[in-house]
Design goal:
This protein has 21 helices and 27 strands. By secondary structure, the protein is α+β, with helices and mostly antiparallel strands.
C-alpha cells in the first residue's frame, strides 16, 4: 500500500492551422488566459503544459506576454513543457523523415522560447501504433501519454497507474496511462468526488499509485458552460486548494520527477488505438449502432474493456474520400519538397484536424480543408513544377489519374469515373476550387430525425447533441455519388434548383461513373466512353479549361446535364456571387434558374473570377449544398458547395463546347 498518491495535471492546448482568428482570441480569453492566471497565483503547484505549434505561433504574434509568463513558470520549476510534433499531425500518417522533422521543430522551439529541454511528447489524438517507438526514441523522446484504455486493449485490467515501457526493435519509450475516468469527472463533478477517486489509488504499490490527468486546455473555459463553472464558480481554485489541503496523502508532481523517483511497471505492447471516442467515430454509422449494443450487453466488464472497441483512425481516409485526397496530395508534396520553405508549407498541411470528424467539426469545416490545400499549393508553387500533363495513381485504385499543370492552374481528372474533375488549384489564390464535400449519413443524424437534443448546451462528447437550428431535417440529404465537377447526367427533363439540392431527379450512377479510355497529348485529354457513347475532350492551356462533349449514339434521354460543384466558401457574403451577362444573379448560396450561354462566379475577397462560356444557350440551375454535422456545441448546418447544372440537348448532331476561364480581379 502506497504512502502517497502522486498526481500529474497535464493540459494540451491546440488550435488548427487555418482556424479563424476570432476563434483563437475567444478561446484565449475563455480558457488559456484564465487557466494560467490560477496557476500563476499558486506557484507551489506543478503543471505540465503542451501547446501545439499553430497555437504557439499565434500566441507569439498576438500575446507574447503570455509566453513570457509561461517561461517564468518554467524557470521557477512550476511548469513542465511537454513537446510534440510541431504542427500537430497524426504521426502514423507521415513518412518517417517528416515525423522526425516535426518533433525536432518543437524541441527547438521549446528550447529557444522557454529554455525548456523537453523529453516529453504529446501524441496527437493519442493515435498509437507500436511501430512509433523506434522513431520517437531516435528523435530523443523519453516519454509520451496514451489513454488507460489503450492498456486495457493490450491485456491490462482495470485502471493502470504509474508508467510502463514500450519497446520496438530494441528501442524504448516510456508510456504514461491517462486516466479516462478523470476526464469525465473533471470539471463536472465536485472537487471532493475527484479527490475521493484519487484516494482509491492508495491501495496500490508505490510505483502504481501514480495518476496522470491529461485533457484539452479548451475544456477549461471554452467548452459550453465550463467558463462559469471553472472560473466564476471557482471550481479549479477549489479543487487545487483541496488537493493542497490533502498533502498528507496526495502529492502534485510532474512526469519528469516521476521518471526520476519511480520505476517502470514493466513492458507494454499495446495494439493500434486512439482514445475510445475517436475509434467510435472512425466507424460507419451502422457499425456505431452495433457497437452501442455491445456496450449495453457487456457493460463496464473486463471483457468490454479488453475486447470491445471501435475502428482504426486510418479508417477516416476510407470513410471520407475528401480526407484521402488531402492525404494523397500531402504525401505527393512530401516526396518532392526539397527546400526549407516548401517543407514548412508541407508540415503546416499535415495538421490533423481537417483529416477526420468526431464531436469537433473537423473535415466538415471548409476553412480547415482550405488551409490544408492552401499550404499544399503554396509548397508546390515554391518548387516551380513544370507545366504539362502527367499520370499518377493518386487514389491507389490501380488506375491512373491525370494531372494538367500550367502556370495558373493545376487540375486532376479521373477518367475511370466519367472523366470527373477531382481537384482544381487556383495557384494565385492558393485555393483548391474543388475542395467540395459530399453529404453522407452520420451516426448522430438519428438525433435530428428523432428531434432530440433541444437543450442549450453540451458538456461532454457522449451527451445527446444540441440541435442548434430548426428544420435541420430538410437538409438531411445523402448524395449517391461524390459531389465533384465535370460530371454528366442523362435526363428527360430539366430539374429545378430544389430538385438538384435534394437529389429528386433520376441519377444513373452507371452513367455518372462510366469508365473512359483516355488518350493524352501535350495539353489535351481525349476520353472515349465505350458503353454509352458520350465522349469528351479536355484541353488545358494557361488560365483556360476547354471541354467538348459529343454523343456518338442516339438515346432515349433527350438532355445532357453537366454538373459542377464549386468551393465558394460562404453562402451569403456580399463580396462573392454569380453573374450572367454582367447581371448579378445571387450570392454563392443562391437558388436560381435561368437560361443563357455564360455564367461567372466572382470572389472579390480572394480576388478572382471563374467564367463559364458555352457554344450555345443552355439551361442553368444554381443550388446550395449544406451538410448537417456535429460540432462541440451541437448539430448545425454548414455550407459546403455551390452546385451548378448546365443542361442542353444531348449533343448528337454537333458537340457541346464549354470554355472555363480563371482570371484575377483588379481592385
Amino acid at each position: 500500500m502506497a504512502l502517497k498518491v502522486k498526481f500529474v495535471i497535464c493540459l494540451h492546448s491546440h488550435q488548427p492551422v487555418g482556424n479563424l482568428d476570432f476563434v483563437f482570441e475567444d478561446v484565449y480569453r475563455q480558457s488559456y488566459a484564465p487557466f494560467l492566471n490560477v496557476f500563476e497565483n499558486m506557484p507551489e503547484i506543478p503543471v505540465s503544459l503542451h501547446y501545439s505549434g499553430p497555437l504557439l505561433e499565434w500566441l507569439d504574434e498576438h500575446h507574447p506576454d503570455y509566453l513570457d509568463r509561461i517561461a517564468a513558470m518554467v524557470d521557477r520549476g512550476q511548469a513542465e513543457m511537454v513537446g510534440g510534433a510541431f504542427y500537430e499531425p497524426i504521426l502514423t500518417l507521415l513518412p518517417t523523415k517528416d515525423r522526425v522533422a516535426q518533433i525536432q521543430l518543437m524541441q527547438q522551439y521549446l528550447l529557444n522560447r522557454f529554455q525548456a529541454d523537453s523529453s516529453g511528447f504529446w501524441l496527437a489524438e493519442r493515435v498509437w501504433e507500436q511501430g512509433l517507438v523506434e522513431g520517437l526514441a531516435d528523435a530523443g523522446v523519453r516519454y509520451t501519454l496514451v489513454d488507460h484504455t489503450h492498456f486495457n486493449y493490450g491485456g491490462f485490467e482495470g485502471v493502470p497507474g504509474g508508467y510502463y515501457t514500450a519497446e520496438d526493435r530494441g528501442k524504448a519509450v516510456t508510456l504514461f496511462p491517462i486516466n479516462e475516468n478523470l476526464r469525465y469527472l473533471i470539471p463536472f463533478s465536485e472537487p471532493e468526488k475527484v479527490l475521493a477517486y484519487l484516494k482509491t489509488f492508495l491501495s496500490k504499490p508505490d510505483d502504481e499509485a501514480i495518476v496522470v490527468y491529461a485533457d484539452d486546455g479548451e475544456k477549461f473555459g471554452s467548452w459550453p458552460g465550463t467558463f462559469d463553472l471553472i472560473y466564476k464558480g471557482k471550481w479549479l481554485r477549489r479543487f487545487l486548494d483541496l488537493a493542497m489541503a490533502n498533502g498528507d496523502w496526495l502529492e502534485l508532481t510532474s512526469m519528469e520527477d516521476i521518471l526520476r523517483e519511480n520505476r517502470s511497471n514493466g513492458l507494454a505492447y499495446l495494439p493500434d488505438a486512439s482514445y475510445r471516442e475517436m475509434m467510435e467515430w472512425a466507424l460507419e454509422p451502422d457499425q456505431q449502432v452495433s457497437l452501442d449494443k455491445l456496450y449495453e450487453d457487456f457493460g463496464d466488464s473486463p471483457v468490454q474493456q479488453a475486447f470491445i472497441r471501435g475502428g482504426s483512425y486510418r479508417n477516416f481516409r476510407k470513410k471520407y474520400p475528401e480526407s484521402f485526397l488531402m492525404y494523397a496530395r500531402m504525401l505527393s508534396l512530401s516526396r518532392k519538397a526539397n527546400t526549407e520553405e516548401s517543407r514548412t508549407f508541407l508540415y503546416r498541411s499535415q495538421c490533423n484536424c481537417a483529416y477526420w470528424h468526431g464531436v469537433f467539426g473537423g473535415i466538415y469545416l471548409p476553412h480547415l480543408r482550405n488551409a490544408v490545400f492552401e499550404n499544399i499549393i503554396a509548397g508546390e508553387k515554391v518548387l516551380n513544377e513544370l507545366p504539362g500533363i502527367t499520370a499518377t495513381d493518386l487514389d491507389l485504385d490501380g488506375r491512373d489519374e491525370w494531372i494538367a499543370n500550367t502556370d495558373d492552374m493545376k487540375l486532376i481528372f479521373d477518367p475511370d469515373r466519367g472523366g470527373r474533375l477531382v481537384s482544381w488549384d487556383l495557384k494565385e489564390q492558393l485555393t483548391n476550387f474543388q475542395s467540395t464535400f459530399t453529404r453522407r449519413q452520420e451516426y448522430y443524424h438519428r438525433y435530428v430525425i428523432e428531434g432530440c437534443g433541444k437543450g442549450s448546451e453540451m458538456t461532454g462528447v457522449h451527451d445527446v447533441p444540441v440541435l442548434k437550428e430548426a428544420d435541420l431535417k430538410k437538409d438531411l440529404v445523402y448524395d449517391s455519388y461524390q459531389r465533384l465537377s465535370l460530371l454528366e447526367h442523362r435526363l428527360k427533363q430539366v430539374p429545378s434548383p430544389d430538385e438538384i439540392r435534394i437529389l429528386e431527379f433520376p441519377v444513373d450512377l452507371s452513367f455518372v461513373r462510366r469508365p473512359m479510355t483516355l488518350t493524352a497529348s501535350i495539353d489535351t485529354l481525349a476520353m472515349v466512353d465505350q458503353q454509352f457513347g458520350v465522349n469528351k475532350s479536355i484541353q488545358v492551356e494557361g488560365n483556360t479549361l476547354s471541354v467538348e462533349i459529343k454523343s456518338e449514339q442516339k438515346s432515349e434521354f433527350p438532355l445532357l446535364a453537366m454538373e459542377w460543384n464549386l468551393f465558394t466558401l460562404s453562402p451569403d457574403a456580399s463580396d462573392k456571387g454569380f453573374f450572367a451577362n454582367e447581371k448579378f444573379i445571387g450570392h454563392a448560396g443562391t437558388e436560381s434558374a435561368l437560361k443563357g450561354d455564360n455564367l461567372q462566379f466572382r470572389d472579390e475577397y480572394r480576388g478572382f473570377c471563374i467564367t463559364f462560356q458555352f457554344s450555345e444557350g443552355v439551361e442553368i440551375r444554381l443550388a446550395p449544398l449544406y451538410t448537417v454535422n456535429l460540432s462541440e456545441s451541437g448539430i448545425e448546418r454548414v455550407f459546403q458547395n455551390s452546385t451548378v447544372f448546365f443542361v442542353a440537348p444531348m449533343p448528337f448532331d454537333r458537340p457541346l463546347r464549354i470554355q472555363v476561364q480563371y482570371n484575377q480581379l483588379i481592385s
